[in-house]
Design brief:
Structural class: alpha/beta
Number of helices: 14
Bound molecules: uridine-diphosphate-N-acetylglucosamine, phosphoenolpyruvate
CATH superfamily of the largest domain: Enolpyruvate transferase domain
CATH topology of the largest domain: UDP-n-acetylglucosamine1-carboxyvinyl-transferase, Chain
Strand order of the largest sheet: 22-23-1-24
Shape: globular
Number of strands: 24
CATH architecture of the largest domain: Alpha-beta prism
CATH class of the largest domain: Alpha Beta
Number of domains: 2
């Protein structure tokens, strides 16, 4: 099992490039199920979840080529025949986003069997809203031996009000609605840029969608979709993680190839913490110069455009280095504080009561052996290790490999002392 060894103390200097967003790429790959034609996606990140999705689609009979010719970040998918419309547990268990194939599969083939995703480190993560929505569109759903089976002759348009805002729930049902008969109106939708990115691909495939990126989406179903080519948005969470890496190390870092418009809440919070940012059209320069100037500022996670839950753990690492008391309230997932105990092992002063963590700073961090528990918790521990005194060893970095492309190589390129020990990702 791979580990990272990180020696703290270096300010990060130079330019670091942001990859495509895994959370856009995953639904866009699933959208290829909706057509017999070829879908070409550009700016696909080379991360483990994308390889898992490739396996998932291939196991159903799709032809999927990840990176071809010299275009390492391009993917070609053709779902001409879906001989086995089943998402098997062996694949689903390693990636929560597998539930994204449920809607497109039942819409295209009239039948889908998808293994129920289990709970994960950050919370229970039910998919009841996906099921409820598909039932409202006329699908019959049964559950047996850990699998959901959805069947329909053809989905029908419906009026669906989400009880709770759900990102992949909005994406899953949006895909299903594109091939349904008649109009579907969704209310209380997720407004995340990843939903808008997916809607742009679906529109390029011939879908009739209005309102993506707002709380209400209208879809006029069509009988067939065609192939398309689409470029995936930059990863706003990777970009935010690098901004914090620059700020926490007192560096001068140009975070390039990002979309600052998607980072409003993160930018404004970092500025409230005293971080100096120069925001360009597709880059942000973080110029802290002196990490000693960081001040505490509270965060509370919310759906987009609020402060993202996927940046909470990384922000907590920064809060350990800010002067004063920071409260961090996690409103989206019930158990997303797994990084706290590990940060405490490194010398942080953090207490947790219910959904709120209180961080008292600034505390010097020391190296330790720590354990990654989920994707963003892993990033938080790397950030802490970059300013810790001595050599930190992070175990279970396979969590991080799910969603960050060549993380250690990118950080090394701007002066971090970080190396991987164990089997090299992708060569096992
Ligand atoms: C692949 C992907 O895009 N993952 C992102 C997506 O996850 P994901 O789409 O799984 O997260 P959701 O937006 O669905 O979850 C939000 C909340 O709704 C609850 N819920 C969700 C669905 C449902 O059927 N029933 C239900 O109760 C969840 O338990 C959670 O408390 O959005 C999250 C919230 O921004 C991010 O942290 C994840 O990185
Ligand atoms: C929680 C995340 O991903 P997933 O929904 O795939 O678990 C994430 O990207 O931070």
């Amino acid at each position: 099992m791979d580990k990272f060894v990180v020696r703290g103390g270096n300010p990060l200097l130079g330019t670091i490039k942001v990859s495509g967003a895994k959370n856009s790429a995953l639904p866009c790959m699933a959208a290829a199920i909706l057509t017999e034609d070829e879908v070409i996606l550009e700016n696909i990140p080379q991360v483990r979840d994308i390889e898992t999705e490739r396996k998932l689609l291939a196991s159903m009979g799709a032809e999927v080529e990840l990176g071809y010719g010299r275009a390492q970040h391009r993917t070609r998918i053709r779902c001409a025949v879906l001989s086995d419309p089943v998402a098997k547990y062996e694949i689903v268990k390693t990636m929560r986003a597998s539930s994204l194939v449920l809607g497109p599969l039942v819409a295209r083939t009239g039948i889908a069997r998808v293994a129920m995703p289990g709970g994960c480190a950050i919370g229970g993560r039910p998919i009841d809203l996906h099921i409820k929505g598909l039932e409202a569109m006329g699908a019959t759903i049964t559950q047996e031996h850990g699998y959901l089976e959805a069947r329909t002759d053809r989905l029908k348009g419906a009026h669906i009000v989400f009880d709770k805002i759900t990102v992949t729930g909005t994406e899953d049902l949006l895909m299903a609605a594109t091939l349904a008969e008649g109009e579907t109106v969704f209310e209380n939708c997720a407004r995340e840029p990843e939903v808008t990115d997916l809607a742009a691909l679906l529109t390029a495939m011939g879908a009739k969608i209005e309102g993506a990126g707002t709380g209400t989406i209208h879809v006029q179903g069509v009988s067939k979709l065609h192939g398309a080519r689409h470029r995936i948005n930059p990863d706003r969470i990777e970009a935010g993680t690098f901004l914090i890496a620059g700020a926490i190390t007192g560096g001068d870092l140009n975070v390039d190839c990002c979309e600052p418009k998607h980072l409003g809440a993160v930018i404004s919070k970092l500025e409230q913490c005293g971080v100096k940012l120069d925001v360009g059209t597709d880059n942000i320069r973080v110029r802290s110069g002196d990490a000693a100037g960081l001040k505490a500022s509270d965060i509370s996670t919310e759906e987009y455009p609020g402060f993202p839950t996927d940046m909470q753990a990384q922000f907590m690492a920064l809060a350990t280095q800010a002067e004063g008391t920071t409260t961090v309230t996690e409103n989206i997932f019930e158990n997303r504080f797994m990084h706290v105990q590990e940060l405490i092992r490194m010398g942080a002063n953090i207490t947790v009561a219910g959904r709120t963590a209180t961080v008292r700073g600034k505390t010097p961090l020391q190296s330790a052996a720590v354990m990654c528990s989920d994707l963003r918790a892993s990033a938080s521990l790397v950030l802490a290790a970059l300013v810790a005194d001595g050599e930190t060893i992070l175990d279970r970095v396979y969590h991080l490999d799910r969603g960050y492309e060549h993380f250690e190589e990118k950080l090394r390129g701007v002066g971090a002392q970080i190396r991987r020990m164990g089997d090299v990702f992708g060569k096992k």
